[in-house]
From TrEMBL:
<dbReference type="GO" id="GO:0016887">
    <property type="term" value="F:ATP hydrolysis activity"/>
</dbReference>
<keyword id="KW-0067">ATP-binding</keyword>
<dbReference type="InterPro" id="IPR039421">
    <property type="entry name" value="Type_1_exporter"/>
</dbReference>
<keyword id="KW-0547">Nucleotide-binding</keyword>
<dbReference type="InterPro" id="IPR011527">
    <property type="entry name" value="ABC1_TM_dom"/>
</dbReference>
<dbReference type="Pfam" id="PF00005">
    <property type="entry name" value="ABC_tran"/>
</dbReference>
<dbReference type="InterPro" id="IPR036640">
    <property type="entry name" value="ABC1_TM_sf"/>
</dbReference>
<dbReference type="InterPro" id="IPR003439">
    <property type="entry name" value="ABC_transporter-like_ATP-bd"/>
</dbReference>
<dbReference type="InterPro" id="IPR027417">
    <property type="entry name" value="P-loop_NTPase"/>
</dbReference>
<dbReference type="InterPro" id="IPR003593">
    <property type="entry name" value="AAA+_ATPase"/>
</dbReference>
<dbReference type="GO" id="GO:0005524">
    <property type="term" value="F:ATP binding"/>
</dbReference>
<keyword id="KW-0812">Transmembrane</keyword>
<keyword id="KW-0472">Membrane</keyword>
<feature type="transmembrane region" description="Helical">
    <location>
        <begin position="59"/>
        <end position="83"/>
    </location>
</feature>
<feature type="transmembrane region" description="Helical">
    <location>
        <begin position="238"/>
        <end position="260"/>
    </location>
</feature>
<feature type="transmembrane region" description="Helical">
    <location>
        <begin position="144"/>
        <end position="168"/>
    </location>
</feature>
<dbReference type="GO" id="GO:0005886">
    <property type="term" value="C:plasma membrane"/>
</dbReference>
C-alpha cells in the first residue's frame, strides 16, 4: 500500500471513520431487513398497517438511513482528502523528473507545461475508482443482503433459488471489485518505482536532458495507452468473457426464479408480499449490480495503466554499475542495432572521442542523433556492442558518477524563475558565493557580453525571474550553454543549442567553446542539423542511411546531408 494511503487510513482518525461507517451500515442493514418483513406482513394481511409497531420500525429505518447518509458524506470527504494528498504525492514524484535540484523542487513557480497535462490525464484514469475503492459500497451489499434475508424468511424454496442467483452475481462481480482493490496499491507502487528510477536517471545526473527525455517517455506512454486499453477492455480480457457468461446465466436464473415464484403463489406456498418482493427485486438489484460493473470497467483501465508502467520500466532497465568515472577518458563506441523503444534507429556506430576534441554530429530530423547521444551518456541501453570510457564499460559506471561528469544541454531545456545570475550559477560544483561574472570572465567570455548579461538582460528578466519565459531563443540558448560551461564537466553535449544563435553570436560562442575545450581538455559533442554550425569541430560524423559515418571534410558531409534532406522532403510530399 502506498505510504500516503497507509498513513491516512491507518491513522486513529481514519480507523474511527471506517469503524463508524461500518457500524452504521450494519445497523441500517438490520433495520432494512426488519422493515421489509413488516411490509410483506402488512401486504399479506398479517399486521395492521396502522399499528404503532409498524410506525415505530419505520421511524427507526428512517433515522438510521439519515445517519448513514451523514456518515457516508463524512467518509466521502475524508476519502477525497486522502486521494488529493495521494495525487499531490504522485505529481510531486513526476515533477522531480524535470527538476534540477532540491532548491526548486517544491517551487510553485516551476513550469511543468505538458507534463502536468499528462499527469492530469493519468490521474483522472484512477480518480473515480480510487474514490469508490476508498468508500466501501455498503449500500450495494445492504440491498443484496436484505433481499436474501426477506426471501429466506418467506420461503426456503424461493429463497434458495434467489440466493443462488444473487450469490452467483456477487461472486463474479465482487471478485472483480476485490481485484480492483489490489490493483490500486500495486499500480501506485509501480508508479512510484518508475518515478524513483527516472528521477535517479534524470535528476541525479544533474543536467542530463531531463525535459527532453521526460517528454519522450510521456509521448511514448500516451501511445501505449491507446494501444493497450482497447486490448485489455475487450476480447482479450478473461474477466469480461466471464462477465458476459455470468449475465447469460443470471438472466436464465431470473426467469426460472420468477416462474417458480408464480407457480408457488398459485399453489398457496407463498403470500402476496413475497410475490411483490420478487417483482420488485429486479429494480432493487439493478443499482448495486451496475455499480459493481462500473468497478469492473475501471479495473480494466487500471490494468492497462499498470501494463504500461511495467513496459516502461522494462524499456528503461537500470544498467548502472558501481565504478568511478575514469580520469579524462577517451570514449570509444562500437555498437550496432541502436533502438529507441524497440524501433531501430542506427545500424552501426564506430566512434572515438578523445580529451580536447570537439565532435560534430549531424543528420536530418529523426535520424537518431539524440538517441545516440543518450547512449553515449548511459541513458539509452537498447543496443548491441560496447561503449567504453577508456577501459571501463559504461554499464559499470554508476549513474551518479555519470551525472557528476556529464552536462547535456538540449534545445527544450528550461531556465529557473530566478535572476540571470542565479540561473547561471545553477548547481555548479563551485561555492555559490563565488562571483559568477568573474568565473565567466576567466572562461573567456568577452567583456561586452558580460555587460549585456549583467545589465540589459538582468533588468529585462528581473530579480525574481518573472520574465524569464519571454527571453528570445538566442538569449535562452546562450544562458544554457554558459551554465553548462560553469558546471566544469568532462563531457558536454550540446543538442541543437547552437541552431537558434544568429551569425554574430554564433561566431562568438564558437570561439568561446573552442577556447574552453582546448584549455580544459574536455570532450564536447555538437549536435546540429545545420552543417554550417559544425565548422569548428575536430571531427564530423553524419548519420546517413541508418549508419553513423565519419567524414574527414565538412564539405563532403554537407553534400551528403543535402541529398538526405532532398530524399526526406520528397517522401514527405509523396505522403501528402
Amino acid at each position: 500500500m502506498p505510504k500516503i494511503l497507509k498513513s491516512e487510513i491507518a491513522s486513529s482518525r481514519g480507523k474511527l471513520t471506517l469503524g463508524l461507517v461500518l457500524l452504521i451500515s450494519l445497523a441500517l442493514s438490520a433495520s432494512a431487513v426488519y422493515a421489509e418483513v413488516f411490509v410483506q406482513r402488512m401486504i399479506n394481511g398479517v399486521t395492521d398497517p396502522g399499528s404503532a409497531n409498524v410506525l415505530h420500525n419505520f421511524y427507526i429505518y428512517l433515522t438510521l438511513g439519515l445517519i448513514l447518509l451523514t456518515g457516508r458524506t463524512v467518509f466521502s470527504a475524508f476519502s477525497y482528502v486522502v486521494f488529493l494528498k495521494m495525487t499531490h504525492r504522485v505529481r510531486k514524484g513526476y515533477l522531480n523528473l524535470i527538476s534540477f535540484g532540491d532548491e526548486i523542487r517544491d517551487s510553485e513557480s516551476f513550469q511543468t507545461g505538458d507534463l502536468n497535462d499528462r499527469l492530469t490525464k493519468d490521474i483522472d484514469q484512477c480518480r473515480l475508482f480510487c474514490q469508490q475503492t476508498l468508500i466501501p459500497v455498503w449500500s450495494d451489499v445492504i440491498q443484496v443482503i436484505t433481499i436474501i434475508c426477506v426471501l429466506f424468511f418467506q420461503s426456503v424454496l424461493i429463497g434458495a433459488a434467489f440466493t443462488g442467483y444473487l450469490l452467483l452475481s456477487i461472486l463474479v462481480l465482487r471478485h472483480i471489485n476485490t481485484s480492483g482493490n489490489d490493483v490500486i496499491p500495486r499500480l501506485r507502487k509501480r508508479e512510484a518505482k518508475t518515478a524513483d528510477f527516472l528521477q535517479d536517471v534524470f535528476v541525479n545526473n544533474n543536467d542530463v536532458a531531463p525535459m527532453q527525455a521526460s517528454n519522450r517517455v510521456i509521448a511514448w506512454f500516451n501511445k501505449q495507452y491507446d494501444k493497450l486499453l482497447p486490448l485489455e477492455l475487450h476480447a482479450q480480457s478473461f474477466i469480461y468473457r466471464s462477465w458476459i457468461a455470468a449475465l447469460v446465466l443470471i438472466a436464465f436464473l431470473e426467469v426460472t426464479s420468477l416462474a417458480l415464484g408464480g407457480y408457488s403463489f398459485l399453489r398457496g406456498v407463498i403470500g402476496l408480499g413475497t410475490v411483490y418482493m420478487m417483482i420488485d427485486y429486479a429494480t432493487r438489484i439493478q443499482a448495486p449490480l451496475e455499480s459493481m460493473q462500473f468497478h469492473a470497467n475501471n479495473v480494466q483501465y487500471l490494468k492497462g495503466a499498470f501494463a504500461n508502467l511495467a513496459e516502461l520500466e522494462r524499456k528503461f532497465v537500470v544498467q548502472s554499475g558501481n565504478s568511478l568515472y575514469p580520469t579524462k577518458p577517451t570514449i570509444r563506441l562500437h555498437i550496432s542495432n541502436l533502438r529507441n523503444f524497440d524501433h531501430q534507429v542506427l545500424k552501426k556506430v564506430d566512434m572515438a572521442i578523445a580529451p580536447g576534441q570537439i565532435i560534430g554530429l549531424s543528420g536530418v530530423s529523426g535520424s537518431g542523433k539524440s538517441t545516440l547521444a543518450k547512449a553515449i551518456v548511459g541513458l539509452q541501453h537498447q543496443y548491441e556492442g560496447q561503449i567504453d570510457y577508456s577501459k571501463t564499460p559504461i554499464s559499470k559506471i554508476s549513474t551518479s558518477e555519470m551525472g557528476a561528469n556529464v552536462a547535456y544541454v538540449s534545445v527544450d531545456q528550461s531556465l529557473f524563475h530566478v535572476s540571470i545570475e542565479k540561473n547561471l550559477q545553477g548547481f555548479s560544483a563551485n561555492d555559490a558565493t563565488q562571483n559568477v561574472w568573474k568565473r565567466l570572465e576567466q572562461l573567456g567570455v568577452s567583456k561586452a557580453r558580460l555587460d549585456y548579461l549583467r545589465t540589459t538582460l538582468s533588468a529585462q528578466v528581473g530579480e525574481d525571474g518573472a520574465n524569464i519565459d519571454k527571453l528570445a531563443d538566442g538569449d535562452r540558448q546562450l544562458l544554457l550553454i554558459l551554465r553548462a560551461l560553469l558546471l566544469e564537466k568532462d563531457l558536454i553535449i550540446l543538442d541543437e543549442t547552437l541552431s537558434s544563435l544568429d551569425t554574430a553570436r554564433f561566431a562568438e560562442v564558437s570561439r568561446l567553446l573552442r577556447h574552453y575545450v582546448d584549455t580544459f581538455k574536455v570532450k564536447m559533442i555538437l549536435i546540429s542539423h545545420k552543417t554550417d554550425r559544425l565548422h569548428f569541430a575536430d571531427h564530423v560524423y553524419g548519420i546517413t542511411k541508418g549508419e553513423c559515418v565519419y567524414f574527414s571534410k565538412l564539405a563532403d558531409w554537407a553534400s551528403t546531408y543535402e541529398d538526405e534532406q532532398n530524399v526526406k522532403n520528397s517522401r514527405s510530399i509523396f505522403r501528402q
